[in-house]
Amino acid sequence: MAKILLVDDREDNLMAIESILAQDGYTFVKANSGREALKVLLAEYDFAMILMDVKMPNLNGFETASLIYEREKLKHIPVIFITAHSYGDENIFKGYRAGAVDYIYKPINPELLRAKVSVFIDLYRKNHQLIAQEQKLIAINKNLEAEVTERKNSEEKIKGLNLQLLQNIDKLEAANKDLDRFAFMASHDLQEPLRKIRTFSDRVSSKYSQILDEDGKKYLDRMQNAAQRMQSLIQDILTFSKISVQEKQFVVSDLNSILGEVISELEIPIREKDFIVETGKLPKLAVNPGLIRPLFLNIISNAIKYSRKEVKPFVKIHSDNGESSDSKYCRIFFEDNGIGFDQKYSEQVFRMFTRLHQRNEVEGTGIGLALCKKIVEEHNGFISVRSKENEGSVFIVSLPLNLKNEEPNFTVGEPSVNNIQH
Fold first, then answer.
1. Residue 34: is it exposed, middle or buried by C-beta count within 10 angstroms (0-12/13-18/19+)?
2. Number of domains in the chain
3. In whole angstroms, what is the distance from residue 46 CA to residue 369 CA?
């Protein structure tokens, strides 16, 4: 909104000018003398124009205008003098030399005043737009110059980093494979002593439970439970490691068949919780069936484990069959009405050993969803989740419709399930 400074020693003249221009939506600041106008301009200089009476005590309009234009920040503000006298050419030229752009003679013609003010306000706005554009272009030019300089300065560094990156790729890939093999072998070797711990603890429990006191029984139960959790953890780590070290084989498979096997395997927990599994038709895709099975198993198991007691639990499994806007992928949805979680943890839940709930609330190793993420990525797909506390979660698995296998192991046939277990 344009701001106008009105300067006149008579309050009635100020009110008259304001009433004429008020309908055009301007903002007004009023001063009753030249000195007061100068005080205003010390604090404010964003005026679109100044309407100033010529004849004023102490400082007249010409003198005030001369002092105003001594300040660099104020030189852009146009001044229109208002006078009741028709000065000769010499005085009129004096006003123009003082900085005036025009004169308005009293008695004021309202339409003429509004027209002249409108012209200068329009010029003021356009001038400010040009100034803003000029400043913007200057800033852009400086940024471009800085960017060019930065690119030139960092060009050699980037070349060096790229060369180093290329040199390290093979080392990193070899190190990752070695790490996966190590995790696989270490977890495999841990199972034998763990089996002995469980075997002997079971023997102690069956043979000596009658002579153990309550503390002894409690300690034995804790040992057996800890051994069971450790076995689950080792098994999950083994499963996670197998994904990277096993040979990739993709088979055109009926996902409905794999899903049916998973639901059959979960028959007991489904029946115990009176859990409803609603399934829609899933497509046939090129997948590794042995990996898709634990993928489905983990997601549905989570839906069962994290169900709410106050509602009848269910999971709805369906697919868009690649009919979404992104036709390169088929999306499979797992919608449940469980306890859910805050959406801010939607990425964290797919990290290794991440648990959002305490072990005494829900059993688990914190590997299941990390395993799901790795399985989906092995298929060149991705997994995400939408969730809300106490309302449920929707896990979305996106798998390529036309998976390009990197190895010559692509086959067509019925799905075969290997020995990877949850």
1. buried
2. 2
3. 60
The C-alpha atoms of residue 37 and residue 32 are separated, in whole angstroms, by 8
Q: By three-state DSSP, how is residue 330 classified?
A: strand
SS3 44: coil
Beta strands in 219-313 (DSSP E): 251-254, 276-279, 284-287
Tell me the C-alpha distance between 106 and 379, whole Å. 86
| pLDDT < 70 regions, the chain | 86-92, 94-95, 98-99, 175-176, 178-188, 229, 232-233, 236-248, 322-326, 352-366, 403-422
In whole angstroms, give the CA distance from residue 51 to residue 114: 12
The boundaries of the domain holding residue 101 are 3-108
pLDDT for position 74: 86
Angstrom distance (rounded) from CA 397 to CA 377 = 10
Residue 166 domain-assigned (yes or no) = no
CA distance 287 to 300: 19
Domain-embedded: residue 238: no
Which two three-digit tokens encode residue 336? 């449940």
Rounded Cα–Cα distance for residues 33 and 12 (Å): 14
Residue owning tokens 């004021």: 108
CA distance 53 to 89: 18
Q: How far does CA 246 lie from the centroid of its chain? A: 36
List beta partners, residue 392.
388
pLDDT at 357: 57
Amino acid identity of residue 151, one-letter, is R
pLDDT (tens digit per residue) in 204-257: 888 887 888 888 888 888 888 777 767 766 776 666 666 655 556 788 999 999
Residues 6 or more apart whose Cβ sits within 8 Å of residue 308:
337, 338, 339, 390
Cβ(276)–Cβ(237) below 8 Å: no
Angle ∠(283,285,290) on CA atoms, nearest 5: 115
Residue 135 lies in a domain: no
